[in-house]
Amino acid sequence: MVTKTRKSGTASTAASATASPLSGAIKDSAQQIWLAGLGAFSKAQAEGGKAFETLVKEGLSIQRKTQAVAEERLNEATQRMTNMASDIGSKAAGQWDKLENIFEDRVAKALNKLGVPSARDIEALIERIDALSAAVAGEGGKTVKAAAPRKAAAPKAAAKTATKTAAAKPARKAPARAKKAA
Fold this sequence. Notes:
Number of strands: 0
Number of domains: 2
Number of helices: 3
Largest sheet: none
Shape: rod-shaped
Low-confidence stretches: 1-9, 143-178
Mean pLDDT: 75
Radius of gyration: 62 Å
Distance between the termini: 186 Å
Helix content: over 70%
């Protein structure tokens, strides 16, 4: 048995010698794979910070562009609303002016029907009164001056009081005569 053992021991040593380079190659290969993984992890970790910073910079750039576009759109919308509001305001003002003119015309017609004189009528009457007063004052002064040397003192005083009384009292219309039943 010893022989057998030896044979098997020799066979086993030969198998282990053959297996040993294979297992060593597998171990070396696994070791290299492990080291490659650690190297990739280390490189990813080092470049990951750089990649993160690059992504942050790109994010800031996109955010600024987006904000600029949003502000531009907001300004455009604000400008449009402002223009629309001013257009609507001017149209409304025009409508209010039309409404005011219509109201004034109707009130003037109603007052005219009631016999109330308008402001124009009153101004025309004031101008006419001023013209008549100037004419009366001008003629009265000439008549008094021209008549003074010819007339005596008593008639002169009577003429002055008559002129003052006529100027002080406005002329009245003659009362309408009542129709008498026959």
